[in-house]
Design brief:
alpha/beta, Rossmann fold, about 45% helix, Universal_stress_UspA, Rossmann-like_a/b/a_fold, Nucleotide-binding universal stress protein, UspA family, UspA, 5-stranded parallel beta sheet, globular, 5 strands
Length: about 160
């Protein structure tokens, strides 16, 4: 296992459907850790199967004709665009990845596959009952990720 205090090569920023209102906060968190280290940022948008189908319909992909690739779909998402603009302004290297699956486990799988040195996820404050009933993607990522996780709470 890499020592997270020595060097960051890869930072995974995982975004989802609830992150549009905090894209600037997420970008600032990424800049704080990636920019000084010269790390590459993986901008990952994770969709559940239902979310992915809805996005394909909304973006009017013809599934019989178009080669539908989750990376291409993620690259067309507005939250990714907003964060890209900020990273471009600060000359930070990044790649875009899309993935389909349950949010928490898929983010952990992505972190492992890209050998992330840090994962950044957004979330909102929830009551213990809310976490028990609805689950918490951020909590699952923090407990299961192969590296340190930075949680960016919504400014609600």
């Amino acid at each position: 296992m890499k020592n997270p205090f020595l060097m960051l090569d890869t930072v995974l920023l995982a975004v989802g459907p609830g992150d549009a209102d905090r894209s600037e906060q997420l970008a600032e968190a990424v800049l704080e850790v990636a920019q000084p280290a010269g790390a590459t940022v993986i901008l990952a948008h994770v969709f559940t199967s239902n979310e992915y189908d809805e996005v394909l319909d909304r973006l009017e992909f013809d599934r019989e004709v178009d080669d539908v690739d989750p990376n291409a779909v993620a690259g067309r998402h507005s939250t990714i665009h907003d964060i890209q603009d900020i990273l471009d302004e600060h000359d930070v290297d990044y790649e875009i990845q899309g993935a389909v699956g349950e949010h928490g486990p898929t983010i952990v799988d992505l972190a492992e596959s890209v050998e992330a040195d840090r994962v950044i996820v957004g979330g909102r404050r929830r009551s213990p009952t809310g976490k028990a009933v609805f689950g918490s993607t951020a909590q699952e990522v923090m407990l299961s990720a192969p590296c340190p996780v930075t949680f960016v709470r919504s400014e609600e």
